[in-house]
Amino acid sequence: MNKIVVLSNMYPSENHPTFGIFVKNQVEMLRHAEIDIDVIAIDEPGKGKLTTLMKYFSWFLRSFIHILKNKKIISATHAHYVFPTGLISLIAKKMMGIPYVVTVHGGDIDQMAKKSPWIKKMTTKILRQAETVIVVGEKLRSTVIDDYAVRHERVELISMGVDTSVFKRQPMAESREELGLSSDEKHILFVGNMIRAKGIIELVEAVSLVQETEPNSALYLLGAQRDTNFIDEVKKVIEEKDIKNIHFKQPQRQSDLALWMSAADVLVLPSYHEGFGLVALEAMACGTPVIGSDVGGLSYLLNEGAGVLVPPQNVEALAIGIKGILSGEEGLIQQTRMEETVEIHTFETILNRLLLIYQAMEKDK
User: Fold this and answer.
1) What are the φ/ψ torsions at residue 191 (nearest 5 degrees)?
2) Edge-to-edge strand ranges of the sheet holding 246-249
3) Residue 363 has pLDDT above 70, yes or no
4) 112 and 134 Cβ atoms separated by less than 8 Å
5) How far is residue 179 from each of residues 54, 182, 257, measured CA to CA in Å?
């Protein structure tokens, strides 16, 4: 197999270690399998319209120069996110005959494609011209096939996978001791960007209800806090309702994140929409019960007892779910089902499926 060029508008850097970490994890998995991978990506979130415009222009230019110089040895490009990333792959295919695969992560379909008719048109073209469209969740698969008329045989459901060498069961007591957490408290964990669509306000209000019967419960919010206005709004809710034991933490390295998950009694992901919900899978790999909104990929990931599903934006239902886990209510989580779900999404399983896709494109080129 010749070179694969991975394109992404999100990729970690030293200053932003969690920015698109799931893409880097997949790249490293492929490199460990001795696949020749070049990455051309944006590794800086950036702020302001002018900064963003210059950033994307530079990235597009770097991408095309690299592909042009190496076109004879490139088997395919792999674009993460349909638009704008997939546009680079589409043009490279039209100009240089290089096939491509595109991974749909959720926001590119649920949000970006709805921003304008032109973006929707380009999204459709990128999806239909791809040799293979990878979707990270079942709901996305239906959307790509039904709404964008992509032939079902060209759509593959493959999550970003979980690295079970990192996300694995660790003793709760030891994890708490290492993190300096109380052994007497009930620890509720959220991991993700601190934005409204992640259901942060509903989670905070639900914890207020939980503490009426579980006063020793604490909520830990781990993630980037780039929207300072929203963070101020969340803190105002906390102050007005006089909610205790809520802690804001910055994004964590993967190894530290696994430690937090092992220390937690429950991970809660109350998103308004979610393409897949990778952090939920990572928590499950650590043996931690998960409560998530019944939306998008979470509806499939947590079904049949693998986790607990609650209606989105429903504070009362969320509180009931959390109380049930903290009190050890039987039947909410089926351990065997949780383990089976993790096994489907291990790096080994994901790697084998990706290699088949890459090999097919090289054969057809």
Assistant:
1) -130, 125
2) 246-249, 217-222, 186-191, 266-269, 290-293, 308-310
3) no
4) no
5) 40, 9, 11
pTM, rounded to two decimals: 0.84
| 323 band by pLDDT with thresholds 50, 70 and 90 | very high
Nearest Cα residue to 350 out of 276, 254, 264: 276
Q: How far is CA 26 from CA 21, 349, 351, in A?
A: 9, 12, 8
| Cα-based torsion angle of the residue sequence 317, 320, 322, 326 in order, rounded to the nearest 10 degrees | -170
CA atoms of 212 and 322, how far apart (whole Å): 12
Q: Is 305 exposed, middle or buried (0-12, 13-18, 19+ CB in 10 A)?
A: middle
Nearest 5°: the CA angle 313, 316, 320 is 120
Beta strand 132-135 with 100-104 is parallel
**pLDDT at position 365 over 70:** no
Arithmetic mean of pLDDT over the chain: 95
**pLDDT per residue as tens digits for the range 241-251:** 999 999 999 99
pLDDT at 295 over 70: yes
What would the pLDDT profile of 56-89 be if each residue is shown by its tens digit?
Answer: 999 999 999 999 999 999 999 999 999 999 999 9
Res 109 pLDDT > 90 = yes
Any long-range contacts for 124-129 (C-beta under 8 Å, 24+ apart)? 124/148, 124/149, 125/90, 126/79, 126/82, 126/83, 126/86, 126/87, 126/89, 126/90, 126/102, 127/82, 127/86, 127/102, 129/90, 129/93
Q: List CB contacts of 356: < 8 A, sequence separation 6 or more.
A: none
Which is nearest to 82 in space by CA: 40, 135, 42, 45?
Answer: 135
CA gap 97, 288 in Å, rounded: 46
SS3 category, 338? helix
Conformation bin of residue 123: beta by default, left when phi > 0, alpha when psi is -120 to 50 = alpha
Secondary structure letter of residue 162 according to DSSP: B
Is residue 356 a contact partner of residue 35, using CB atoms and an 8 Å limit? no
Cβ 257 vs Cβ 286: under 8 Å? no
Q: Is 69 exposed, middle or buried (0-12, 13-18, 19+ CB in 10 A)?
A: exposed
